[in-house]
Amino acid sequence: MHSSHQLQWHLARLWTLAIALTVAGCVTSTQKNTRIASTDLQQALRPVNGKTAYAGFDGQHNQFYLGNAFLERRILLSVDGTRLQTISILDKVTGRYSVAQASEEFRFQVANLTFSGTDSLLRYQRYDIVSGLEGSRKLIIWMSYDSVTTESEIDLSPTLNNLFPRPRSSNFNFRLQICYQTYPNQPRIDKWLVFENRSNTPLVLQGIVVESLPILYPYRFQLLTKRTGGHLEIYHSPDLSGQMIALTNQAPGILKFFDVDRQQDTVSVGLGSSTLNHSTKISVFLNQPVKIPTVSCTAGTFMLDQVLGQTVINQRYLKREDLKSYHVLDFEPDNLSALTDELSGKAGRRRALFLPVATVGKEFLDRLDWQLSNPTDSTVPIYCLLSEYGFFMVKAVEDLMDRCPLDLLILAGPIFENRNSALLGCDKIEHGHPDRSESIFLTYKWLFNFSLYIRNQYPDVKLGVTAVTYGVDLPDYACWQYFDFFVP
Ligand SMILES: [Zn+2]
310 pLDDT exceeds 70? Predict the structure, then answer.
């Protein structure tokens, strides 16, 4: 009798511990499993509340997990380490699973090969859990591709069309980090990819999908979506209420790519463009890792805008009439000295300048070699920011600011060529950038680096960007990270 009570007491204790672990997001039984690192266990045992974000590896089920009080995502690693698939995203508030079958997880092409979480070309290496700012947790899963190990898996038997087949993968070797991050007080999981090239030939990526998820599997016949700017909201009821999940693509401007495939019940989010005829390419060079912009998965009605604050967002739209308190200048004179004279004469009022960042007047600059590859008939030539013109522009702005400080600098005018309402980049490789589609990614990078530089050099200056310059009608998360104002 006595021993039975003791047993029951022990069982009760174990049961309590099991519940604590389940709540903490680690459903592994603790008694037997020795594959769990002690750090994982410590993380799992930490009490879960609104302030806790966690991540770990559940060795018994071969699953990575991360989450907080709102969401939990579980990612299954196949036993042979070649496949990585999200198997569930649980909305803890409603108790609903947004993903109830295994995902493709990610996708991209190199040469003629398609890589994804399901195709078995990549090999799992290791994982890291990193504590970030303000209690955030980052899970990094490392996978790699080494052409030497996989050549044997590629069919090299000759065919009539190809009598001397060569391995298509003979010259590349890379490492991929699949990164996830959760934050304590937001129903949000971020995900991004980092590519590291480990061979001398450039790794050329195409068709990059950061997130490929089967969405709302139990509700597939009612799948409804709504896209605004960089958000894709997915509902399961016809009146667009009870939003379950939203994917926010943090890729800038026209680079955002969304695809809802109702036949396959999947949502793909990544880099590309509906206004480009071809997919975005990204070259990765040896020792120069490239981060592919983040896709955030949020639950309920939580929008990433809330991180910035909606009132703040509204104040960040700037119309011409909002500029009444400024002395507004358009950068149109033939030379900089005329403008600085004008600016100096207007002391007292705040000064705002619309700077046509890639289209300064023809009279002012006449450098055909700096122009975009295919100038249209328009009277205003567009210069390639990735050419030497970019350096010239930075210098010109510095000269201007040093002689006559501005309060607000708004980047205006087109930076890409608009042909049949499709925005095109520059394919003059003599500018030092790869081909046209790749120049778009790099031009946005230039804009963001320019913003960082100006903020660092002139911390009091506010920066704005116009819709024409940014390439889309609505600002997005990437834009808000680098610019104070968006001018529609
Ligand atoms: Zn160029």
Answer: no
> Distance between CA 481 and CA 477 in Å, rounded?
6
Q: Which domain holds residue 80?
A: 33-148+171-307
For the chain, give the percent of residues with pLDDT over 70: 73
pTM above 0.85, yes or no: no
Ligand 1: centre distance to CA 370 (Å): 7
Ligand 1 center to 279 CA (angstroms): 18
What's the 205 CA to ligand 1 centre distance in angstroms? Answer: 20
Give the pLDDT band (50/70/90) at residue 18. Answer: very low
| The pLDDT value given to residue 386 | 95
Q: Angle at which helices 388-403 and 336-344 pack, to 10 degrees?
A: 30
Q: Are residues 357 and 405 in the same domain?
A: yes
Kindly list the protein residues that place their beta carbon closer than 5 angstroms to ligand 1, a single-atom ion: 384, 386, 426, 428, 431
- Structurally, the chain folds into a number of domains equal to 2
358 C-alpha to ligand 1 centroid (Å): 11
On whether both 53 and 113 belong to a single domain, the answer is: yes
Task: Say how far apart CA 480 and CA 476 lie, in whole Å.
Answer: 6
Number of CB atoms found within 10 A of residue 39's CB: 10
Question: Residue 106: left if φ>0, alpha if ψ -120 to 50, beta else—which one?
Answer: beta
Mean pLDDT of 304-308: 73
Distance 255 CA to ligand 1 centre (A): 17
Q: Does residue 327 belong to any structural domain of this protein?
A: yes
| Contact of 288 with 442, CB cutoff 8 Å | no
Amino acid at 157: S
* Centre of ligand 1 from the C-alpha of residue 291, in Å: 22
> Model confidence at 159, in pLDDT bands (50, 70, 90)?
low
Say yes or no to pLDDT of 360 above 50. yes
How close is the Cα of 433 to the center of ligand 1, in Å? Answer: 6
Regarding whether 65 and 124 lie in a shared domain, the answer is yes
Is 274 part of a structural domain of the chain? yes
Q: How many Å lie between the centroid of ligand 1 and the Cα of residue 329?
A: 28
Domain match, 326 and 472 both: yes
Reported as a single tens digit per residue, the pLDDT across 163-214 is 655 544 457 899 999 999 999 988 999 999 999 999 988 999 999 999 999 8
- The answer to whether residue 17 is domain-embedded is no
**Residue in this structure with the two tokens 């995502």, named with its chain if needed:** 73
How many whole angstroms from 161 Cα to the centroid of ligand 1? 38
